Amino acid sequence: MTLVMPMDNFWDVFISYGRADSREFAVKLSQQLSSAQVNVWIDINDIPLGVDYQVQIDRDIESADNFLFIISPHSVNSPYCALEIEHALRCNKRIIPLLHVEQITFETWQQRYPEGTDAEWQAFVAAGKQTISVNIHPAIRKINWVYCREGIDSFDQAVAGVLELMARDRTYVRHHTHSLLKALAWQRHQKQTEFLLIEEARQQAQRWLKTQFKGQQPPCLPTDLQCEFITESLKYGDNLMSQVFLAYAEEDKTIMEQIQRFLRRQGITVWTNTTCVQTGSDFSEAIDRGIEAADNLVYLLSTAALNSPWCQHELNYALALNKRIIPIQVSTTAGFSPELQNLQHIALTQETPLEDTDFLKILKQEEVYHREHKLLLTKALKWQQQNRNPSILLRGYNLRHSEAWLKVADKQGQFSPIPLQIEFIATSLQHPAESSLDVFISYSRVNSEFARQLNDALQTQGKTTWFDQESIASGSDFQQEIFSGIENSDNFLFVISPSSVSSPYCAEEVNYAASLNKRIVTVLYQQVEYETLPDALKTLQWIDFRNHRGDFYTHFGELVRTLDTDREHVHQHTRWYQRAIDWQQKGKSQDLLLRGSEFAIANDWLQIAQQKQPPPTALQQAFIQTSEASIKAAAERENQQKVVLRSLLGLMSIAFFTATGLGVWAFSLWRQSEMAQLETLTRTAKALFLADQKPDALVTAVKAGQQLPRIPRADQAPVLSALQQVVYGIRELRQLNGHGDRVNSVAFAPDGQVFATASDDNIVKIWTRDGTLIQAITDHQDRVNQVTFSPDGQFFATASAAILSMRFLSRNWILMLSYLNEESGFQ
């Protein structure tokens, strides 16, 4: 019989044995192990008819954590057992040899072969088949054995020894089996990306691959296939980026493959032209993209490489991008090109293998810096290739992180930022921050390739997107970032596939978007059963992308039209949700309610939105309605004050001459009413200012100022102080974030069309009146204290602690004169 495969498709142990010597012993051993809650695979049947038995045996060895080989003359000499051992070795299984029979006697042989002759026995002995010592597999010979010889060793002690070995590093060994099965499935499916590891499984495999066994031998080693599978999963999850680009000549391909295997075994992702260039793609373009998306270029230095135009191109392009280049000398006869002359190189020889060099140490040096360099470079190149598309510019934490990185990078030598990276960050800083994004993309990581294609196409169309591979910082609260991204996006785009509708993460995203009444747009990537869809998606019409490989942009055009439908409504939906959630999170403060024109816009939207999709949320309605109630309450208080005042003034006119005391009291009430009205206007102005509604704040402050003469001068001081905070606090109609430090001086040209700014960052900048940067002047060596224009507007002058410069103002902003301020004057 064949024992039934456990439900999780794993076996604790596969038992390989020779039937003639150990059949009964193997059964007894398997029963004893099973009683100890061990899942045992053992086959004691003949080969079933119609089944490729060897394929089945191989699959079961692959699915077992341990390979237990019962040593006997029959098993040592069996071709079937030899095949099993070879497959276990290919899979790098933990092998446990157990000695059962050392040799058989002539009597035993004669019992098995009753008609056997002496000559046949002598031939049997000459072939070494009566003993284990002649033909035993070398791999079995060098492993410590468990002894269980009948009549010599204790069976119970042998079983205990086997159980102890199986328990040792059990978790590590189980991960080995799991990743091996995944890698073999990937290989059987022609290494398609949908079979790569994702999310937690990928991270777990990475940790397993990097596990170190200090001071002891590992129970088993990863296979080359597992190392490739895991590192390819890491690379795919990192947007096809790698840590190492291998540049080599075709003559050095064998050495390249050795280095590739070595790097993968360390968990390092590698780009080579043999594995990463897709069929039918432009080879030269693929090479350049690979270099751009790599942290390091490892150059295999040989005579063939120095003579290869491809290797020279790869070297030159890496130098142009300020990539770190690590030459490995693989040929002792190779010279050095001028570009490699000053670079530290590694000599690879038979006496000095790669693991004994400083190669890994060099790769680890400033590892984070080179990764950040790569990430920023690829984004900047994408921006450049799409004609400086503003939807690709850095935002939020990405912008802050890149700005901080640039300050460190400026101090680097040969690996400093290239001009494009600096320009990309500067343009991102100048670009006004969006209050919301156009699209949040929700998808299963299994469909990463398609999701990336959607994201790139949307950005090309000018849509700002929230895409987790570009929008989440490492180490951040993943779920909080997800929820924030959904809140701040006008549309929620969901990619439908079997993996996405069964993903708990995707379900959580859909439910949250539905709870916010977001407009949900669905694209069908792979067919699913209707019953498996989340409830929020069952009533929605999807855009069918199943034929996307041949007709992606036809379906994509329909997606863009859908996103552009009623665009202002969904944008306002996001805007008023942002304001409402801020109001709710800050204790429903009165100061955060809507006022003036902003309330009018929101209220008009609310009336129309009741009949639109998506409809307003309860929070949005409560926020706008509470704002309306607050405005009405304020108006009612003001009307009541006016009625009281008019009544009192009427009484004063009737009884003035007969009741002087009453007249004084009425005047006091009138003054209190004026003060109350003025204080209301002042508080409103301050609230609008704090809510960043500066135009409305300024108008309200002016109204309050007009009423100041109507109250006694002694009562004006506190009101003036409050109004000054508002009026003087409004310093801009537009904010320019062009300087990295304090701005010391601003000057407008006489015609008012351009102005200049001087800063502590040692830079003078020239702007048009609408805030467009014309030029940054960086030749000052110290902070710039002053900038001024000549009366005719033809020149402007700048002054710092070290330099006084006068420049001619023209279309090309040509530097005309520069005077150095030395001890005795100007030169």
Task: Characterize the structure shown.
The chain has 827 residues and is α/β, with parallel strands linked by helices. The strands form five sheets. The chain has a five-stranded parallel beta sheet, with helices on both faces. The protein has a five-stranded parallel beta sheet with strand order 7-6-8-9-10, sandwiched between helices. Strands 12-11-13-14-15 form a five-stranded parallel beta sheet, sandwiched between helices. α18 (396-409) packs across α19 and α29 packs antiparallel against α30 (694-707). It is elongated and about 135 Å long. The termini are far apart. The model is unreliable at 1-7 and 810-827 (pLDDT under 50).
Low-pLDDT parts are 1-7, 810-827
Beta-strand percentage range: 5-15%
Supply the number of helical segments: 31
Counting DSSP E segments of at least 2 residues, the number of strands comes to 24
- Spatial arrangement of strands, main beta sheet: 2-1-3-4-5
How confident is the prediction overall: mean pLDDT? 84
Major beta sheet summary? 5 strands, parallel
